[in-house]
């Protein structure tokens, strides 16, 4: 194996090991000499890895993760008084739907999936979100430098993400998931710090979550770190599920109103 160019910071990446992806492609993995991220060679197999599905059959924790992420999003939104949210890579829209149930104006974006749980909520009603969320998304970025430009291009007050952090694990690291072929870039703590500095955000890492936030006060930064801890999120999760969910009826009425308007427009078009 020869060296490669890091797809995040453009520095020289050194060969680490090879793995068989999707059971047939021999793929080289490299570690960047500057940001210390781990990455595959240029991922030419992604169309094959995704096929007609966004969710790997190996991702058996997806449903539980959505509930846990709901607690984290709810807590951070309340702490920073966030209202408008975009869920990047939100898959079938389940998290978006649950956030809307509890009064958070969330919309979902996913180029690989149909948001069956959040139909009608893919085009935001605001120009700039307060919060961008993306859970188990960053490791899918084939070209993280440009993909992160797009992500931070929303210019939100904060971004709440999750991905397993690379700390020099070997080729048997479970998070590589060579059988699925969808995980192609693995960020070190140094890489996350570079990202925060580049886009001028503060970085908070806690409880498996990565929070980029603009100019938080020392108190709110401390509280965010506490609220994102796994045990605290579990408590918040227990609280959230017993709260009233006014968004369920509100969105139903909204969808009915929109359907009536669409039918009225169609009838007007016929008469014309």
Q: Please report the total strand number as a whole number.
A: 11
Give the N-to-C terminal Cα separation.
68 Å
Q: Mind telling me the CATH superfamily name of the domain at 62-162 and 188-247? A: Vaccinia Virus protein VP39
Helix amount, in percent?
Answer: 25-40%
| CATH architecture term of the domain at 62-162 and 188-247 | 3-Layer(aba) Sandwich
Whole-angstrom Rg: 20 Å
Largest sheet: 6 strands, mixed
In round numbers, the mean pLDDT is 93
Order of helices and strands: EEEEHHEHEEHEEHEEHHH
Q: And the CATH topology of the domain at 62-162 and 188-247?
A: Rossmann fold
Low-confidence runs of at least 5 consecutive residues: none
Structural class: alpha/beta
For the biggest β-sheet, the strand order reads: 6-5-7-8-11-10
Give the overall shape, derived from the CA principal axes.
Answer: globular
List the helices and strands and how they pair.
Layout: E1 4-5, E2 12-21, E3 25-32, E4 38-40, H1 46-50, H2 62-80, E5 84-88, H3 94-101, E6 105-109, E7 131-135, H4 144-152, E8 158-162, E9 185-186, H5 189-199, E10 202-206, E11 209-213, H6 218-227, H7 230-240, H8 247-271
Parallel strand pairs: 5-6, 5-7, 7-8
Antiparallel strand pairs: 1-2, 2-3, 3-4, 4-9, 8-11, 10-11
């Amino acid at each position: 194996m020869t060296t490669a160019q890091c797809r995040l910071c453009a520095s020289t990446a050194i060969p680490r090991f090879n793995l068989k992806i999707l059971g047939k492609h021999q793929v080289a993995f490299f570690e960047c000499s500057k940001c210390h991220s781990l990455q595959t060679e240029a991922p030419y197999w992604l169309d094959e890895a995704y096929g007609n599905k966004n969710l790997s059959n190996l991702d058996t924790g997806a449903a539980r993760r959505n509930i846990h992420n709901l607690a984290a999003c709810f807590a951070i939104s309340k702490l920073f008084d966030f209202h408008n949210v975009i869920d990047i890579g939100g898959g079938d829209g389940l998290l978006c739907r649950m956030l809307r149930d509890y009064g958070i104006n969330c919309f979902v974006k996913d180029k690989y999936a149909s948001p069956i749980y959040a139909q009608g909520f893919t085009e935001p009603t605001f120009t700039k979100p307060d919060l961008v969320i993306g859970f188990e998304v960053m490791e899918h970025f084939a070209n993280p430098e440009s993909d992160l430009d797009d992500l931070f291009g929303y210019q939100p007050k904060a971004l709440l993400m999750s991905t397993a952090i690379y700390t020099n694990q070997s080729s048997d690291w479970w998070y590589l998931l060579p059988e699925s072929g969808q995980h192609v870039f693995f960020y070190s703590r140094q890489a996350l710090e570079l990202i925060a500095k580049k886009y001028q955000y503060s970085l908070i890492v806690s409880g498996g979550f990565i929070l980029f936030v603009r100019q938080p006060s020392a108190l709110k930064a401390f509280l965010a770190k506490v609220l994102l801890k796994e045990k605290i999120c579990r408590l918040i999760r227990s609280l959230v599920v017993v709260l009233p969910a006014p968004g369920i009826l509100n969105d139903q009425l909204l969808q009915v109103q929109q359907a009536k308007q669409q039918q009225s427009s169609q009838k007007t078009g016929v008469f014309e």
